[in-house]
Amino acid sequence: MVEVNDNFRQLPVSYLFSEVARKIAAYKKENDACEIIRMDIGDITRPLFPSVINAMHEAVNELASSATFHGYGPEQGYPFLRDAIAEHDYLNRGLSIEASDIFVSDGAKSDLGNLGDIYSRNCKVAVMNPAYPVYVDDSVIDGRAGKLVDGHWNRLIYLDCDPDNHFLPMLPQERADVIFLCFPNNPTGEAISHDDLVKWVEYAHNHGSLIIYDSAYEAFVRQPGIVKSIYEIDGADEVAIEIRSFSKTAGFTGIRCGYTVVPRRLKGRYADGSEVALNTLWNRRQTTKFNGASYVAQKGASAVYTPEGLDSVKNATDYYIANAALIKDAFRKIGYKAYGGDNSPYVWVSTGNGKDSWQIFDELLQNCGFSTTPGSGFGTKGEGYIRLTGFNSRENTEKAMSRLIERYL
Ligand code: PLP
Q1: Mean pLDDT estimate for the chain
Q2: Model confidence pLDDT, tens digit, residues 118-156
Q3: What integer pLDDT is reported at residue 334 of this predicted model?
Q4: 57: which residues sit within 8 A by CB, 6+ positions away?
Q5: How many Cβ atoms from other residues are within 10 Å of residue 296's Cβ?
Q6: Cα 184 to chain center, whole Å?
Q7: Does any ligand 1 atom lie closer than 6 A to the CB of residue 85?
Q8: Helical H runs in 11-144?
Q9: Of the four listed, 157, 228, 250, 373, which is most buried by Cβ atoms within 10 Å?
């Protein structure tokens, strides 16, 4: 038998989603008159935009004829999409990111894990606590997390986020080689201001660290002064990789398309100290292990940047943000603490009186017939919170929140 990657053995089985599903099923069995509203939903619910659908139909038609057929494309993505991303997401916003810095992928989740191929196994990794679980689990699989002791991996550096620091972590006390930051944040729904992000870019410059900046939710940013791209900070192109996704922005969770920016000015060093551009390494990694995102998906993604596509992004994200506002208001009305939601589809809620995540989850399911995600599934600092999302329909969100108000006010 082949020897397997022992790190998998260390990965705790996540019972979170199966336990949520089990409790919902049990509740349904006992209360068949009451429909459960999924306020934990992590997927978008609105359909693809007409401009995207048309572009994908055209792309499929091209593939149907030998004169216009496309086989393997460039591993880095087609120029039509890389150029559109560079122009709309960066150059038009005054940021000097070019098409050659951009690598199109099949989504943010793959790239978050795949990037582990280009930095050393010895790197000390810092993660926000709570966090999207992928950063921790990828670090475990790659052998960078150490051992699990009392709920913490002993080689990871945890960046604790709580109301005292407005869910913006303090800079690490010890040297972090790689720092995962995510803003607007999943799960807390909080975003970061320009001034606060400057400190992280300075830290990375001073310590020779690499920031992996997950901005999958940048299209939800509404308030002035809140960062959409880390490259808004001077010097960030020498210390940061940015990861983006069309999933929540344009409904691509099922189509799959995203991109990663690895600026050519971003350098690393080999074990002997000699310098190398991370862009060169990532290009080598992608051309070796990836054969490009689908042509149809990339055509669809390029239609996101047409005037109709950009309008649709604004409308769809406005819709989800308005749902998040309803959720936040309703919980505040009943005296709970509610955070996030202003530049994000996520609302992060606690009772403020020490109830743990599963207790809150159970009570809301039993008393109001809607489901949430227990915050403890996102890290030890998520205990005592639940996450709700604005991704359900307006009608269902209103229904769930009126049940909350009726029961608790
Ligand atoms: N990053 C964050 C913070 C997310 O919440 C998600 C999805 O929920 C992803 C990345 C993954 O996005 P994608 O669908 O592009 O893989």
Answers
A1: 96
A2: 999 999 999 999 999 999 999 999 999 999 998 899 999
A3: 98
A4: none
A5: 19
A6: 8
A7: no
A8: 16-30, 50-63, 79-85, 108-114, 134-141
A9: 250
Helix, strand, coil content of the chain in percent (nearest 5) = 45, 15, 40
Q: How far is the CA of 102 from the centre of ligand 1 (A)?
A: 18
- Assess contact for 310 and 88: CB atoms under 8 A: yes
Q: Is the pLDDT of residue 33 over 80?
A: no
Among left, alpha and beta (phi > 0; psi -120 to 50; other), residue 150 is left
C-alpha distances in angstroms, 126 versus 159, 168, 312, 314, 318?
7, 14, 36, 33, 32
Task: Assign 172 to helix, strand or coil.
Answer: coil
| Interaxial angle between packed helices 16-30 and 357-368, expressed in degrees from 0 to 180 and rounded to the nearest 10 | 30
Tokens 């290009």 locate to 283
Ligand 1 pocket test, pick from 41, 44, 112, 132 with the greatest ligand atom count within 8 Å of Cβ, gives 132
Q: At residue 80, what is the residue type?
A: F
- Between CA 293 and CA 244 the distance in angstroms is 14
- Rounded to 10 degrees, the C-alpha dihedral 200/220/250/238 comes to -20
Confidence of residue 307 (pLDDT cuts 50, 70, 90): very high
Q: Is 263 in the pocket of ligand 1 (CB under 6 A)?
A: no
Report the separation in Å between the CA atom of 111 and the middle of ligand 1, taken as the mean of its atom positions: 10
Supply the pTM of this predicted model: 0.97
Residue 399 amino acid letter: K
Tens digit of each residue's pLDDT (9 = 90 or more) over 197-241: 999 999 999 999 999 999 999 999 999 999 999 999 999 999 999
The pLDDT value given to residue 154: 97
